[in-house]
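Q: Predict the assembly, please.
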Amino acid sequence: MAEQAGDKPFLQFTNVKKTYDHRTLVVKNFNLDVAKGEFITLLGPSGSGKTTCLMMLAGFEDVTSGEILINGRSVTSIAPYARNIGMVFQQYALFPHMTIRENLAYPLKIRKKPKAEIRAKVDEYLALVELQAFGGRYPGQLSGGQRQRVALARALIFAPDIVLMDEPLGALDKKLREQMQFEIKRLHDQLGFTVIYVTHDQTEALTMSDRIAVFNNGIVQQCAPPHVLYERPANLFVADFIGESNKLKGVIASVGDDRVSVRLDDGAQVSTLKANCTEVGLPTTVSIRPEKLTFTDRLGSAGNQVKARYITRHYVGEYIRYHFETSDGTELVVKNMNDSSAPQFSANDEAVLAWLPQDSQALDRPDASATS
Amino acid sequence: MSSLTTSEAGQAASARSKKRLTAFLFVVPLLAFILLTFVAPIGSMLWRSVHHPAVAELIPLTLAELQRWDGKDTPDRQTLEVFVRELHELDQQRLSGKLAEEFNRAYTGMSSVVKASARRVGRLDADELQDKGAETLLQAHRNWSSAQVWYAIQRAGQVYTYDYYLTALDLELHPEQGIQVREDTQIYLQLYSKTLNMALVITLFCALLGYPLAYYLAGLPENRANLLLVLVLLPFWTSLLVRTTAWIALLQTNGVINSFLLSSGLIGEPFEMLYTSFATVIAMTHILLPFMILPLYSVMRGIDPSYLRAALSLGAKPIPAFARIYFPMTLPGLSAGALLVFIISVGYYITPALVGGTDGQMISNIIAFHMQRSNNWELAAALGSLLLALILILYWLYDRFVGASNIKLG
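A: Predicted assembly structure:
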C-alpha cells in the first residue's frame, strides 16, 4: 500500500489549524500523511473536528493555518472544482432533477469528454455498482442503498485522485450498511483510489480502514491500523471510544521494560503492559477488554486476579455479558462465548476474575487529581 | 383471522363516519363564511353580467310587440302606439329618466331623445294618445324612425344577454353583419393587454430583486435569517395606503427623488414619474415583493448546501453549478412566487388608482369606474368575469406546461 513516487507522501496535512469564530480552534494542529491507495478513516464523536478536516481537504472550508499538500503541492489556494477530489455526501446529494445517467455523466460533461466516451463510462460505472437497469430513473425513485451506490459511482467516474466520504452510510439501516461497507471495500480494492472516510461508527471504521485517526476535541488522539488501535490504545479516550473497556483504578507501583506493576485501589497487585503512564506513584487506569477478562478456572493461576461480586447477566445471543462489581464499586463486564461451559451464578456470588498481563494496559487516569 | 365480522365492520364504519362528521363540523363556520362572502358575490357578479331585466321591466308590452318586427324599416304603427302608451305611463311615474339612461347605454345619444320625447308624449291626453301618439313620437326625433335604434332597443330588452361581453371585448353585434369589431372606441382589449404587460414587468422585477435576497437569507444562520425576514414582512404590517402615499411623496414632481437629482445637478428639470405606468410598476413591485421572497426563501432553505458542494467537487465552476444545479431546484419557489405576484397584480386596484394617473391604469380601475361612476354594473361584471376567466386560463396553462404540483408556498 505504501509504495509511492519519491519520499513525499501522496497526501499530507501539516500543522493544519481551523477556527470559525477566531477564538477557539476546532482543529488543533492536525498532522497526517496518507499513502496513495490507502483507506484512512477519521473517527470521533460529533464536533471533534473530523468533518472540518474533510471539508478543508475538499476546499469548502479554508485553512486557518498550516498546509494541505497533494503530491507535494499545496492545495490550500486551489478552488474546490479544480482539486479533482471526489466526494460522497451523507445525504447522497444526487441532483433530483437529473436521471441517474445524467447524474453520472455530469462530471464528464463538465470535463468536455466526447459523447461516446461519456456513454461508455456511464455504462461501465452503472455496471460497477450493479445498477444497469436504473439509468433512466430519477434519484427519488431509488431506495437509499441504490442512491448511495449511485453517489459512489458519481464520485468515482471522473477518476479523482482522492475520494472523500462524509458519513456516507449514516442514513442506511444496519443490514444495508454492512452490505455497503463490503461494496465500498470491493470498489476500493478493484480501483485502488485513496479514501478519506469520516464516520462516528467504530465498527465501520475497524472493518474498512487501513488506518484510523481517532479525533477528540480537535486533536488526533491516535492514528494507527485497526488492530493496534483496539489492542494497544494510546490513551484512555481511545480505549473507551473504540470498543468497550473495564477500567480498574490504581497507582503505578513499579516500572519494568515493557510491563508495569500496578497497586489497585482495593489493594490487589497486578502486572500489565506499559502504555502512556510510566512513572512510579502516578495514578493510572488499568484497561481490560471484556472478552479478555474471564473466570479463574479457565486461566489457572497464570494471570492477574481480582475479586468481584456477581450482579446480573445479559443474554446477547452469540455471547453472554456478565456484570460484576468490585469492593470499591467499580463495574466489571465479562464477555463469555455462549457455549456449554458458560457458568451460572446467583446474585451476590463472589467470583475471582482473571486476565493475562499482555491483555491489559496502564493508561492515564483523568480523575486522578481529585484522588491523589 | 383476516376478515372482520359484520358487527366489527359496522363499528369501524360508524366510528369513521363519526370522525368525519366531527371534522366537518369544525370547518362549517369557515365554509359558511366563504359561501356568504366569496362564492355568493362572485356568483352574483357572473349572473349580473348576463342577466339584465331593467328594460324588460320598463317596457314589457313594446318588447312583446317588437317580436313581430322584421328588423327592417320602422316598426309598424301598432308597436309604436304601444311604446308611446308605455312611455306616457313612465313619464307619469317619473321613470322616463331611467329608460333614457338604459337606452343611451344601448345607443349613444338616446338620453336626450328619450327625455324630450317623454315630455312631449306626457303632455298628450288619453284621446290624443290614441289618435296621434305614433306621429308625435316620430315627429319628436328622427331616431324613432331608425331601424338601428329599434334594433338596439330590442337587444337591450333581452333579459339574458351576452352584449356586455361583446362590449368588454370591443365587439358589437351588427343587425346584418353579425358580430364584428367595434369601430369607434377600442378601450378594453388594449387595457387588458396593458394590464398583462404591467403584471409581467412587475413579476419580472420582483423576481430580479427577490431572488438574490432570498438566496442571501437562505444562506444565513436561522436566527439572523428570521430577524431579516421580519424586515421583509414589515411592509405587510404598515397600511397599504401609507406605503402608496409614501411613493407619491417620493415620486412627485417636487418630490424627494426629483429634488435630490436636481440639487445634485444630475438633471436639469424634474422627471415626470408620478401618474405614469412607471409609478404603478415601481410601487406595486415594492408592495408585492414579499410574495416573491417568501416562497423562494422557503424553497431555498430546504435545499441542502451539499448539492452545490457536490457539483463543485465534481468539477463544475461556481456559475455553471449554480445555473445547472441550484437554479432548477429553486424553480418551484420561483414559479409559486411569480404566479402569486402575477395574479395579484393583474387584479390590483388601489395602487394604480393612486399613483398611476391615466397612463398607469389597469383593468380593475376601469371596472371600478363602471361600478362607481358610470353605474354600468353589468359591464363591470362582464369585465370582471373576463378577468377571472383570464386568470383561470393562465393558471390552467401554467399547470399544463409547468405543473401546479410544483408550486411550493412555504
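Residues 244-371 of chain A form a domain with the OB fold (Dihydrolipoamide Acetyltransferase, E2P) fold (CATH 2.40.50.140). Chain A has ten helices and 20 strands.
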